[in-house]
Specification:
alpha/beta; two-stranded parallel ribbon; 4 strands; about 35% helix; extended
Amino acid sequence: RIVVAGLCMTTDGFEPAQAVLKELELRFAMMYSPAEFARTFTHLTTGDFDVAPLVTRTVSLDEVPAVFAALSESPEDAKVLIVP
C-alpha cells in the first residue's frame, strides 16, 4: 500500500504499469487530525520511532537555501533534518 500524504503545486504524472503489475494499492490522505500529530510527536520525542535511518543529511538554518537549490537539481537526499 502506498499512501500519498502531500501535494505538489504542479501537475504530477503517473505511469500505472508498474503499480498494476505489482498490484499496489494507492491511497490519498486529505489531512491528519491534531490528535494524530500529537501522538506522532510523542512517539518521536520518546524515541519510540527510530528516524535516524530516514535522515540522509543534517543542516543548519543558514544552509537551507543551498540545500533547497541542490535538491532541485539532484534530489540525492531523502530527508533533510534542519537543526536551528
